Predict the 3D structure of the following.
Amino acid sequence: MPKIRSRTFRLVPYEEYDAETNMAVDEALLELHLQGKTPPTLRFYGWTPPAVSFGYAQKVAPETIARIKKAGYDVVRRPTGGRAVLHEGELTYCFIASSKSETIDFSTAQKLALVEQSDFEPDSQLLYESPYEAILESSVARAYRQICNALINGLTELGVETSLGKSTDGSYKNNEDCFQATTQADLQYEGKKLVGSAQLRRRNGVMQHGSIILNQAQDKMAELLGESDKAASSQALKNGEISSDSAEIDDRKIDATPPPRHFNLRDLLANDVDRTAIEEAIGRGFTKAFDCRFAVYDIKDEEWELVESLKAGGERYRLD
């Protein structure tokens, strides 16, 4: 069957939701794209209340969850991988499209057998792939690069020259905080991360979402993750101000001020550019990268039904 060629992409305008709803909307839009019910889609959103999201397979200590919640922040598990992200003073984007796939052609019987052995519903991605023309490469790295280039286009229009991050020596995996190290899936400015992203792939569908730092306190994430106390202790040990078995630290002797964790986009802009102008510039960046135009429409009632069904289980995104 010929693929649907659509150069009219969907733009879901900015709204703010709680953490679980945001993750369910992103996942629902991917599922609907696989079903052929929504074209390639760009979405912008915020988080109310502010939240910390953790990667799908990231281990999180109960005391960390308790500390974050006590501070008044939501906690959620993303359907994507990666490390912890603070969703405060930032703009989140999500882009969904089809990729060139090299998938096994399961027979209907095989697909149904797989469904019976899993927790997928009968209309799951095991039974179909997106009918839309593939605009993303099958390679994860190249697809990241395509989407990141669209972001680079938009930021360049704002006067901010960014570049793709570089492979790390493993420091990313050793950090709980996504923004403590860069990868090839990120955008950096003068060596510091400005945009962090992660992908979810189902059949030939790709959902990439990420955080664009606008105006975020440098030390807030360390405080929420409990890293600030560790950093102070580590610096004190390094300076010889405490012994390894000492529990006391003389704060007056310690200079534990860490280097900047990230760049804030608002600090890099020549003028006081508002969030809407940033969204519009990034939208034009995608238009240039994918030779498309955008039609704006909100989440529809039937789409909200899928969102609510994804949230209904209670454990899909929840961290307790």
